[in-house]
Structures are given as structure tokens and as C-alpha cells.
Design a protein that fits this description.
Strand content: 5-15%
Bound molecules: zinc ion
Number of strands: 4
Strand order of the largest sheet: 2-1-3-4
CATH class: Alpha Beta
CATH architecture: 3-Layer(aba) Sandwich
CATH topology: Rossmann fold
Radius of gyration: 17 Å
Number of domains: 1
Number of helices: 5
Structural class: alpha/beta
Order of helices and strands: EHEHEHEHH
CATH superfamily: Creatininase
Helix content: 25-40%
Oligomer: single chain
Length: 220
Amino acid sequence: MQNYVLSDKTWCELEGEIERVIIPIGSIEQHGPHLPLITDSLLVERISKKVAEITDSILIPTIYFGISEEHMNFKGTLTLTPDSFKGVVLDICTSLRRHGFKKQHIINYHGGNKKYLIGLIPEIKKQGIEVSLHRVLGRIGKFDHAGEVETSLMLYLYPENVRRDKIKKFKYRIPRGENWRTIDYSRSGVIGDAINASADKGERYFKKIVNEIAEEIKNG
Ligand SMILES: [Zn+2]
């Protein structure tokens, strides 16, 4: 199988390469007692890799850091300020454009990044880039943070990273409105029913997410 990962190639191997590129964006933030802080970044990396294969695109390394202020009450969460975040994304898009990658597809995993990315799109377009933004978790239909959806994806893709003995029926409420903090809705940091997770569900979710994003990119 062809290797689509930009950073694995030499610069010579990129000469005359495909002009379409996938930019995965995750986060480093708490995911309850049973999933690692890197969950969003691991998942978006695997989703993006598969999408790159299907759509014949180049994949760049995941932007691991996002905007995770809402989880900062939980140790280990690392957040960028909006200006830093937007600066990093814009600089990467501009670098890619300078090397001829005119069609850029951002796959954003973490909801906290979304509004900043939407605000950044016109600035990216000003660089002469055809850019599109694709979401991940919203496709499964329920609010989920380390709940049934994310835990299932992790059980399917990275089972060795799931602390199964820590999964239980966590107490939570669904956040409402803007600028909420996770701690006000869940003491564990989990929002969703991790106890209902399974690797089989994770496989179904993964395939649905990958196929939908790949279709959007092919039709875009
Ligand atoms: Zn997550």
C-alpha cells in the first residue's frame, strides 16, 4: 500500500506529489479515569490516515494541541490560547500552500476547537487555499466525552490504552449553552455512558465517520 504520510517521506519523494492534503487536529485533555489524555489526537490520527488512503491525499502529522479550557480543572489537560491555536493552524496551512498543496482538508476532532477554526477559514482562503473543515464526533448523534462513543472507538482502535477496570456508570449531566466547564457537569470528567461501550460499536462508528468524511472530500 502506498504511504501517504508526509513526514515519513524525503523531500525528493514529495516532488510532483498529490496536491490534496489532510490536516488532523486533536487535543490533549482529560478523558475520565479510563482513557488517556491523548485520546482525541490518537483517534483523529487513525481516522485521518484511513481518509487519506481512500481519497488519495497526503496526511500531515496531527496537531496534538487544541483549545481545552473547559477541561482545565482536571490535571494534565494542556490548552493553547485561541491566538496561539489559530497561529499554528494558519502557519501550517500557509507552509503547505507554499509547497503546492492547494486543496486542504482539516479534520477537527475536538469540539472546543471548532468555533476558532470556523473563524479562521476566511483567513486561510485568503492565502489562495481551497480549504474545507470536517467534524468527527457530531456524526454519531449524541454528546459524548469519554462516554459510549469515544470509549467504543478506543476499544476498537487502541484497546491496550483503555483502563477497562475503571469503567463504571459515571454520573453526569449534558452541558448547555456556551463557556461551560466540565467539572460543573461531571466529577469524573466523563460525559456519556462509557459502560455501554464495545469494540463492535467502535468499529461501526469508525467506518461511518471515515466513509462520510471521505465522501465529503471526494465530492468537495
Ligand atoms: Zn475526546
